[in-house]
Amino acid sequence: MATAKRNTTKKESLTRDKLIGLYMDYVLENGKEPGTVYKFCKENKIKEEDFYKFYGSFEGLQKGIWERFFEHTVAVLHKSKEYESFSSREKMLTFYFTFFENLTANRSYVLFALKQHEMPLKNLSQLKLLRKRVKSYSRDLIKEGNKDKPFKLLQQSEMFFSEAVWVQFLFLLKFWMDDNSAQFESTDVAIEKSVNTAFDVFDNTPLERIVDFGKFLWKEKMV
Asked: In the chain, N or C: fewer CB atoms in 10 Å?
């Protein structure tokens, strides 16, 4: 009876974030993902059925971790009173700065997850849910920007912009992974320059920003 009572307590206290935390701790301590859901649950004294209430597999959990990074980032943004008054450009910058702060707080896990398999595409498959969320977020931003343009000719394609933002995100993610600067200051510079360049391109005033961004990439030996 005592065991049943402990399990009930565990069941009541288990949350998505707690499950994610247990999984991240496991892979960092063992250098690999658990062999089976059963073994993982037994080791952490949780019921297997409780695991499946949140995710159907470790693959689903891995994708969910990246989605939670996004959700936590957006939650932080909306706590700021100033955020809603920002321009689309400022919102994009703030999103990236906050998102990469989240990644930095979990850098050991992120590097493990993105280097787990020899084939890069297999590692990137865990970003599937994040891709949808980032593209949706960026579509909303360009939609806001288009409202300020009186002529339809000057409005930008939401689909094209969202795809461009995702490519930009992957570039910044790789940059951050390779960044050895103190407090990842080079990543902050890359975020600012790449976002400003992207918005300048969409605002049809690209030349100066593109040249500046190109010089930065050359300096950082990215091209």
From this structure: N
Q: CA–CA separation, 122 vs 127, rounded Å? A: 10
pLDDT at 206: 45
- What gap in Å lies between CA 123 and CA 116, rounded to an integer? 7
* pLDDT tens profile 81-131: 899 999 989 999 999 999 999 999 999 999 999 998 777 777 899 999 999
3-class DSSP assignment, residue 164: helix
Neighbours of 191 (CB within 10 A): 22
Residue 87, Cβ neighbours under 10 Å: how many?
13
- How far is the C-alpha of 25 from the C-alpha of 31, rounded, in Å? 10
| Residues 222, 139: Cα–Cα separation, whole Å | 28
* Confidence grade of residue 152 (pLDDT, cut at 50, 70, 90): very low
Q: Euclidean distance between the first and final Cα of the chain, in Å?
A: 65
CA distance 81 to 89: 17
Q: What would you measure as the largest C-alpha separation in the chain, in angstroms?
A: 72
Helix (H) or strand (E) holding 99: helix 88-105
Which residue, 93, 99, 102, is CA-closest to 141? 93
Q: Which tokens belong to 144?
A: 């806001």
Per-residue pLDDT of 67-76, as tens digits, reads 999 999 999 9
The token pair at 127 is 């970003």
Separation CA 49–CA 61 (nearest Å)? 14
